[in-house]
Design goal:
elongated, about 85% helix
């Protein structure tokens, strides 16, 4: 059932991509179309990521980043940049991921985008710990958890906090973090 929904949603997004791509070479193509194009490509990346195709997701996030940069959509650029970094981290390239996630966190914090800031701050904490910056990583992990407002984001950040603590081999604290979200 999930695979069927994934295919259907992806087909809608691909159709939107095709329409926007064909509009690009016309005079009717406007700035808001460019911003829409970035969002369509971004959501394609989210769909691929959720379906486990990290390579396709990475490609879409970098494309969305470029499109967002072209139309000066800082929020979309930050989200695409952060999720590209997350894709790198998911593949074990946490050192390469860290600059992308850090850039996203700084931008999201400036823009006061709470939920996305919370997630990216938590991810940044995990990647910092994995790069040997334990104290700073734990601080960012906690900061992400504290910034989360809605229950879903709190749970997401608590899981990331637990994962970060596991990387530090703080087993009791990880168990508490995992069950308190």
């Amino acid at each position: 059932m999930y695979a069927e929904r994934f295919e259907r949603i992806l087909a809608y997004l691909q159709e939107a991509e095709s329409v926007l791509e064909s509009l690009r070479s016309t005079e009717e193509y406007a700035d808001q179309d460019h911003a829409r194009f970035a969002k369509v490509i971004f959501w394609m990346g989210r769909m691929y990521f959720a379906n486990g195709d990290i390579s396709a997701a990475s490609e879409r996030f970098m494309r969305a980043r470029k499109l967002a940069e072209d139309c000066k959509d800082e929020a979309m650029r930050a989200l695409a940049t952060g999720l590209y970094g997350n894709c790198l981290g998911q593949q074990g390239y946490m050192g390469q991921a860290l600059p992308y996630v850090t850039e996203a966190v700084r931008s999201l914090e400036r823009q006061a985008i709470d939920g996305n800031f919370a997630r990216m701050a938590s991810i940044r904490g995990t990647f910092l710990v994995c790069n040997g910056k334990v104290t700073e990583g734990l601080e960012w992990s906690l900061r992400g958890l504290q910034a989360a407002k809605d229950p879903s984001m709190m749970a997401n950040c608590a899981i990331l906090r637990a994962l970060t603590l596991c990387y530090c081999q703080e087993w009791e604290a990880a168990e508490v973090a995992a069950t308190s979200g």
